[in-house]
């Protein structure tokens, strides 16, 4: 049974078929990467799945339920969360507050209890904060908790965004270039983090340009070119697929094969 | 000395009204970065609807409640019909939309009600209370209490409740707020409703003192806006302090210099403060990541 199923998804921008007839699925705990040259439609595909764009064609099924064109906040409540390539962080909040915000959904209580700061309300806040701190530790931002988020480096913000997404306790996590702007050490940390999250049963859909990382951690790869799916399969098979090499890997082919071997 | 006390008391009364208007600005600004120039019309509607409901035979408290609820509904309509459809437009366009909305509301009020000046009886009579040689109207105490109650209510709302923090999160980053499951459309609607209700409350409280008519909104919006800027736009503490300060400045100028200069003096001081502290008295420094 697949947790996330994409069926014939497509969208046009003016006369341009940005994405057309893309289908694939994710099982619980599976890491699926979407790769393709710049402008292939990877982020557009993400935006459709996560409710930022309304697809013109096709369906998105989350655990069997049709969630096509559902707004992002409702998807979040159903267990689908994502990060953005160009970062969507609460810049003027602290790092901890950003992570706590991810607990928003799990912290609902009676408004009056909150207003008078009753024990139950304070306990909920404490639990959120403890959960948020644990997640920050997990992404290596434990010591930055009280800093203003806007003061962090790009790579740290990437990890903060992952921590916030994890705070929602998602079933499906969409990561748009989590390792962009990170150095080799940070990339490897993110690598381990993604694998560990997937091992807990969270399905992960990944867009990433770091081919070594993609080949290393993906269970399954979907290749887009000009908005169409041109191949999908296991990393080893993808890296040898002549269509993929022609469309995308090009000069990087040797490098990717090397990483794979 | 009683003179000074008298000016202080009247300054605080007027300042409390400005503070209420400024608090209304603060809420919508916090949720959307929009400065809602229809804020003054909410005050006007609060007064006018109470006047006409009361004249129709309803008891004053009920008339006031109806006015506040109806104005909140106008606020929601403003968001749904004018702001939400234009989402994605630059903030400046949204601000211009609110100016258009304020002209529309003023015109509609003129047609639905009339162009006369109205008032209704004060809540606790008109007999002035003597305070150390000066006097204060009981209604002034209502105004001051109203401003304080709204301020503390908002403070609790924004710091203690999840919904309040959702409003702040939406202001900070709308997409990020949606990602963590916040319904940002609801947050916007709620902000307009609250802001309109607070404006209407100000109108209800102040009408027995200043009277009301269809065109009192513009001047109040300007003063409330100035108060909010003085205190630091977006900060409830700043709105309260800015409002009171502006009221006091006006009362002192009117008392010791000339009432003709009271607006000018107030604005000169505001300009001076903003030159030295562009973020206002309580505003936080904003930094943009490039």
UniProtKB/TrEMBL annotation, chain A:
Organism: Shinella pollutisoli
PANTHER family from the UniProt entry: AMINO ACID ABC TRANSPORTER ATP-BINDING PROTEIN, CONSERVED COMPONENT OF ABC TRANSPORTER FOR NATURAL AMINO ACIDS-RELATED
Keyword annotations of the record: ATP-binding, Nucleotide-binding, Transport
PROSITE patterns registered for this protein in UniProt: ABC_TRANSPORTER_2
Pfam families, alphabetized: ABC_tran, BCA_ABC_TP_C
Domain (ABC transporter) ranges: 4-251
The protein, known as: ABC transporter ATP-binding protein
Molecular function, one GO term: ATP binding
From TrEMBL, chain B:
Keyword Hydrolase: no
InterPro entries: ABC_transp_permease, BCAA_transport_permease
Location relative to the cell: Cell membrane
Transmembrane stretches, start-end: 7-31, 51-78, 90-109, 129-158, 179-206, 212-231, 238-258, 264-282
Recorded topology in the membrane: Multi-pass membrane protein
Keyword set, alphabetical order: Amino-acid transport, Cell membrane, Membrane, Transmembrane, Transmembrane helix, Transport
Family as reported in the entry's similarity comment: Belongs to the binding-protein-dependent transport system permease family. LivHM subfamily.
Name of this chain's protein: Branched-chain amino acid ABC transporter permease
């Amino acid at each position: 049974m697949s947790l996330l199923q994409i069926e014939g998804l497509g969208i046009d921008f003016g006369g341009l078929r940005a994405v057309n007839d893309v289908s694939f699925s994710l099982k619980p705990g599976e890491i699926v990467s979407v790769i393709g040259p710049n402008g292939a439609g990877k982020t557009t595909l993400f935006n459709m799945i996560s409710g930022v764009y309304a697809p013109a064609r096709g369906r998105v099924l989350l655990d069997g339920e049709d969630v096509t064109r559902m707004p992002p906040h409702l998807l979040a409540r159903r267990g689908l969360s994502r990060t953005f390539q160009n970062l969507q962080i609460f810049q003027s909040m602290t790092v901890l507050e950003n992570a706590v915000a991810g607990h928003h959904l799990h912290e609902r209580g009676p408004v009056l209890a909150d207003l008078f700061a009753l024990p139950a309300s304070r306990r909920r806040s404490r639990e959120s904060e403890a959960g948020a701190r644990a997640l920050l530790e997990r992404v290596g931002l434990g010591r930055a908790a009280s800093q203003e988020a806007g003061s962090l480096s790009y790579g740290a913000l990437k990890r903060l965004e992952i921590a916030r997404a994890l705070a929602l306790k998602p079933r499906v996590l969409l990561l748009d270039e989590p390792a962009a702007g990170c150095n080799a050490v940070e990339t490897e940390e993110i690598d381990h983090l993604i694998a560990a999250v997937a091992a807990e049963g969270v399905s992960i859909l990944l867009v990433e340009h770091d081919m070594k990382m993609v080949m290393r951690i993906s269970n399954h790869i979907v290749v887009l070119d000009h908005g169409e799916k041109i191949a999908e399969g296991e990393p080893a098979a993808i890296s040898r697929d002549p269509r993929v090499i022609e469309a995308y890997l090009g000069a990087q082919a040797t490098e990717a094969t090397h990483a794979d071997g | 000395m009683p003179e000074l006390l008298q000016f202080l008391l009247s300054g605080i009364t007027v300042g409390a009204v400005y503070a209420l208007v400024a608090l209304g600005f603060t809420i919508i600004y916090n949720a959307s970065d929009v400065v809602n120039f229809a804020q003054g019309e909410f005050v006007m509607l609060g007064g006018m609807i109470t006047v006409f409901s009361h004249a129709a035979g309803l008891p004053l408290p009920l008339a006031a409640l109806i006015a506040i609820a109806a104005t909140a509904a106008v606020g929601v309509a403003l968001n749904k019909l004018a702001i939400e459809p234009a989402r994605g437009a630059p903030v400046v366009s949204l601000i211009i939309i609110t100016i258009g909305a304020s002209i529309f509301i003023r015109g509609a009020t003129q047609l639905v009600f009339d162009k006369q000046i109205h008032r209704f009886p004060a809540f606790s009579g008109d007999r002035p209370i003597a305070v150390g040689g000066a006097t204060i109207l009981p209604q002034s105490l209502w105004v001051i209490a109203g401003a304080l109650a709204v301020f503390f209510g908002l403070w609790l709302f924004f710091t203690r409740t999840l919904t309040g923090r959702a409003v702040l999160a939406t202001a900070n980053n709308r997409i990020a707020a949606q990602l963590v499951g916040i319904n940002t459309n609801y947050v916007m609607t709620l902000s307009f409703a609250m802001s309109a209700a607070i404006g209407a409350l100000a109108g209800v409280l102040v009408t027995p003192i200043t009277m009301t008519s269809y065109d009192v909104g513009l001047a109040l919006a300007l003063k409330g806006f100035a108060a909010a800027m003085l205190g630091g736009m977006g900060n409830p503490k700043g709105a309260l302090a800015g409002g009171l300060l502006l009221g006091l400045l006006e009362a002192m100028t009117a008392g010791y210099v000339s009432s003709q200069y009271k607006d000018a003096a107030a604005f000169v001081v505001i300009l001076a403060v903003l030159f030295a502290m562009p973020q206002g008295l309580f505003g936080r420094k904003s930094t943009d990541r490039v």
